[in-house]
Write a structure and sequence with these properties.
With 164 residues, this protein is α+β, with helices and mostly antiparallel strands. The protein has five helices and five strands. It has a domain of 107 residues: Ribosomal protein L22/L17 (Ribosomal Protein L22, Chain A, Alpha-Beta Complex), CATH 3.90.470. The strands form two sheets. Strands 1-5-2 form a three-stranded antiparallel beta sheet. It has a two-stranded antiparallel ribbon with strand order 3-4. The termini are far apart. The model has no long low-confidence stretch (mean pLDDT 83).
């Protein structure tokens, strides 16, 4: 069963909060709470409050045990941005954007095997060519030259006998 909890309009940048949210995904609830307790960031405190709210929802509304819960998903969305201005040199003004976040946490009592992480970054040029053209894109292999002909073993023995 899925249990959700939301905190809206949290006064922290979503980019800063996502770093902490990524760390708790897939962890057991007790491990996630421990990690958030000892993380010295403002977002850890806000995410911890949302996680505790999700645990309380699971226990009170759905009668689930907190020991069996896993953080399935911790998502940080963008909230509205407060626009402020600061005076700058020569009569101009500089914009200041005070960003807000929406924190969404989903807990589950079903264990799921972790998915394999895909490799990040751009694919190598060789992989791209193979995917476009298949096996034809392989570079032409150098033709192997035939090794120099060697005298068979029998003939050398025969020459040794004739030499005697």
């Amino acid at each position: 069963m899925l249990v959700r909890s939301t905190t809206k309009y949290a006064r922290i940048s979503p980019k800063k909060a996502r770093h902490v949210a990524r760390e708790i995904q897939g962890l057991a609830v007790s491990d996630a709470l421990d990690a958030l307790t000892y993380t010295p960031k403002k977002s850890a405190h806000l995410i911890g409050k949302t996680l505790k709210s999700a645990i309380a929802n699971a226990e009170n509304n759905h009668e689930l045990s907190a020991d069996e819960l896993i953080v399935k998903e911790a998502t940080i969305g963008e909230g509205p941005t407060l626009k402020r201005f600061k005076p700058r040199a020569r009569g101009s003004a500089g914009a200041i954007r005070k960003r807000t976040s929406h924190i969404f946490i989903t807990l589950t009592d079903e264990f799921e095997a972790p998915e394999e992480k895909q490799r990040s970054g751009k694919p190598k040029k060789r992989d791209t060519i193979k995917s476009l053209f298949g096996e034809k894109a392989k570079p032409a292999a150098k033709k192997e030259e035939a090794p120099a002909e060697e005298a068979p073993v029998e003939e050398t023995e025969a020459t040794e006998e004739s030499a005697e």
